[in-house]
Amino acid sequence: MKNVCVVLRNEKDVIGDGWKAVADAFCFNGYAFDEIRLLVVSEENRAISTLSGLKNEFDNVVVISEKPLLTAVKRYVSQAFPEGVYQGGVNGAGIYDSAKSTWFLLSDDVSDTGVFYAKNVCAPYLYKKYGVRAEKYVIRSVGGNETHLQRLIAEAKTFGGENVACNYTRRYGEDVIEITYDDKTPKMLLDDTVRLFADGLGESIYALENISLEEQLVRLLKLRGKKISVAESFTGGGIGRRIVSVSGASEVYFEGLNTYNEQSKMKRLGVSEYALKTMGVVSDQTAYEMATGLLNTGDCDIAIATTGLAGPKSDKSLLPIGLCFIAVGVKERVFVYRYKFDGTREEITETAINYALFLAYKQLKNI
Q1: pLDDT of residue 146
Q2: Same domain assignment for residues 145 and 256
Q3: CA nearest 308: which of 291, 292, 333, 325?
Q4: How many domains does the chain divide into?
Q5: Alpha-carbon span 348 to 37, nearest angstrom
Q6: Contact present, 189 and 265 (Cβ < 8 Å)
Q7: Same structural domain for residues 202 and 101?
């Protein structure tokens, strides 16, 4: 089957990311898109003409717009696809079907007209139409090379054909690869696809299931019977927040210190004034001493420490924005990792948090 996603927006608006979640809801249920097109709502004739041309080219057309635009877009769909029989909907969203194609009209939010509608109404409708149930296999990794990952996906498509679809999302340095297949897919073909990614991504993989970094870390801490402590500077408590969001984290999370100030680093963690004055706050030595300060208390088995510059401006050190040091260690050894992340303040911080959780998981796995 051939599927297309059409996003309609106001002419002057910057398109948001809401539509991506709706589109992903289709992809992750086994109905990936061959094309994605953007149209402007105010250009009515052009929008209708473009939509009309899709019905002979695609089996399924997904039309997504902002919720206030659904009424206008519904009119466009009716004119472009007059042969479509309305199959029902809610609050402006709906399904239109004909002998040749099916059209879905949704809003770009998580409500009963957006993501929820896509997952709970549209996907089951497609399953009923084609008689093929979509299954999903998830691989999650951190720090993989994006170009290499795209090559792996292209390779998977060459031997997977129409039986297997591979989609991935990258957010803050973390990749979530979703391999969707139907219930008629040969097991050997699925195994070969999974093996392709497992071999290609190697040590950057932290889970072969749909589980978050923090959940995987807490699970392993419980399994090993270990406790973790965290000392954060530029990540501002984000690592601790992620860990405690997991149910049962109190069994393994001893403490989290947000040592933003130099005096705090010295007083709470025993960081030496020499390291701060000679090496600098943002340095491998400072990160190392922050982690060893936690481990020296004897209250934790593994420690994470972060220090860096998230921007938007540098400090008196004139170090580049995005530079950070992440220390992860146990009593016997502490490793310090240097990174230079790009992006906004939020993107740099959240990426560092993901890397810190991932590095802790990797080290714990080898204990």
Answers
A1: 92
A2: no
A3: 325
A4: 3
A5: 30
A6: no
A7: no
Q: How many CB atoms lie within 10 A of CB 16?
A: 12
pLDDT at 1 over 90: no
Residues 359 and 219 in one domain: yes
Specify the DSSP class assigned to residue 279: I
- Kindly state the average pLDDT of the residues 354-359: 98
Residues 112 and 358: their CA atoms lie apart, in Å, by 35
Distance from C-alpha of 64 to C-alpha of 9, rounded to nearest angstrom: 9
User: Given this model, what pLDDT does residue 95 score?
Assistant: 96
What residues pair up with 61 in beta bridges, in sequence order? 4, 103
- Structural domain that includes position 191: 134-207
What's the length of the chain? 367
**Number of CB atoms found within 10 A of residue 160's CB:** 20
For residue 12, what pLDDT is reported? 61
Phi/psi of residue 295, each to 5°? -65, -35
Q: Which tokens hold the place of 69?
A: 């635009």
At 4-26, the pLDDT tens digits run 999 998 876 656 778 988 998 88
CA distance 355 to 143: 7
Q: How far apart are CA 340 and CA 192, in angstroms?
A: 35
Q: In this predicted structure, what is the pLDDT of residue 132?
A: 66
174 and 45, same structural domain?
Answer: no
For residue 307, the cross-strand partners are: 325
276-300: pLDDT as tens digits: 999 999 999 999 999 999 999 999 9
Is residue 310 within 8 Å of residue 282, measured between CB atoms? Answer: no
Please check whether residues 35 and 91 belong to one and the same domain. Answer: yes
Whether 226 and 333 share a structural domain = yes
Supply the CATH number for residue 84's domain.
Answer: 3.40.980.10
Tokens of 272: 């030496």
Residue 82 has pLDDT above 80, yes or no: yes
Beta-bridge mates of residue 91: none
- Average the pLDDT over 166-170 and give the result: 87
220 and 332 housed in the same domain: yes
Distances (CA, A) of 248 to 86, 218, 221, 223, 353: 48, 8, 11, 13, 20
Neighbours of 147 (CB within 10 A): 7
pLDDT of amino acid 316? 77
* Beta bridge mates, 347: none
- Give, as one character, the DSSP assignment of residue 126: H
